[in-house]
Design a protein that fits this description.
The chain contains 13 helices and twelve strands. By secondary structure, it is of the alpha+beta class.
């Protein structure tokens, strides 16, 4: 992707630009923005073209930024940008930015809001459960902390959705984040077992499932979140912390939950039938 200004700065004359447009080696995308010699579909090219069309200070934001960061799944969002000056660009939503490139970085060559700033922007447009999932992805993928998000909120005290975002970061919003967790909760209901608190802090760290009154912690090991060395080390730390606060600790995989849950349900039934203990 290249702009007319970049072409001129590289020594290509206006006449040469016209010739290359006629030959199809420069393909207009937006006014003054071109693909260089290809029609290949590319989300990154589409988003970068929108950024270039909106000026030097423009950055990708909102759902589009969340898609690039991997915080949202599903269909590809339309380009959404923050820019100092308002531009009307077909197919692009442009928000006025109060500062030049606020809380921004580069991702895959695209100027984009940082992960904490992206979460703050999402709080304005996502329902609670989707926002909670995005926050969880940010913590897993980028180790984003509540303190980093609070630093962004300090400069945006009137941002919409701040209360919901803070409740999520504090663990006050129950949310099921994966198919494994959904299946696990379904198995508990089928077995007539009490449901746990899920994805809430315990000892300063979020745990998958906990029954505080029974002093029982369960972690669910889906491959997506537990295949890296960092995840493996974090899992061991969670187990040490659970035992350190006096909890029984169990770890279950997809096979335990989805394929043959009889042993898991029996074990949990025994553990949860014990007398309740104060937390």
């Amino acid at each position: 992707m290249v702009t007319r200004a970049e072409l001129l700065a590289a020594g290509i004359t206006p006449e040469q630009i016209k010739q290359r447009k006629r030959r199809g080696t420069l393909i207009p995308i937006h006014r003054g923005v071109y693909r260089v010699g290809h029609h290949a579909p590319s989300v990154e090219a589409r988003y970068l073209a929108a950024v270039k069309a909106c000026g030097d200070d423009a950055v990708l934001c909102g759902r589009a930024a969340a898609h690039i960061w991997g915080l949202l799944r599903g269909s590809i969002p339309a380009p959404e940008l923050l820019a100092r000056s308002h531009r009307q660009v077909a197919g692009v939503t442009v928000h006025r930015a109060r500062a030049s490139r606020p809380e921004s970085t580069d991702r895959r060559g695209i100027p984009i809001t940082t992960v904490p700033r992206t979460l703050v922007d999402l709080a304005d447009c996502l329902p609670e459960n989707q926002l909670a999932r995005a926050c969880h992805e940010a913590q897993v993928l980028y180790r984003t902390t509540p303190e980093q998000v609070e630093a962004v909120l300090a400069g945006r005290p009137t941002a919409t959705g701040t209360g919901t975002l803070r409740r999520i970061l504090c663990g006050d919003v129950p949310v099921t984040l994966s198919k494994l967790e959904s299946r696990f909760l379904a198995r508990l209901k089928e077995g007539g077992l009490p449901l746990p608190e899920s994805n809430r802090p315990a000892g300063g760290r979020r745990v998958d499932c906990r029954w505080p009154e029974h002093r029982l912690t369960v972690e669910l090991d889906g491959y997506r979140y537990h295949h890296s060395r960092h995840a493996w080390e974090q899992d061991r730390q969670r187990e040490r912390e659970a035992r350190g606060r006096g909890d029984e600790f169990r770890r279950y995989t997809w096979a335990d939950v989805g394929e043959d849950p009889r042993f898991m349900v029996g074990e949990l039934s025994t553990l949860l039938s014990r007398s309740k203990r104060p937390d």
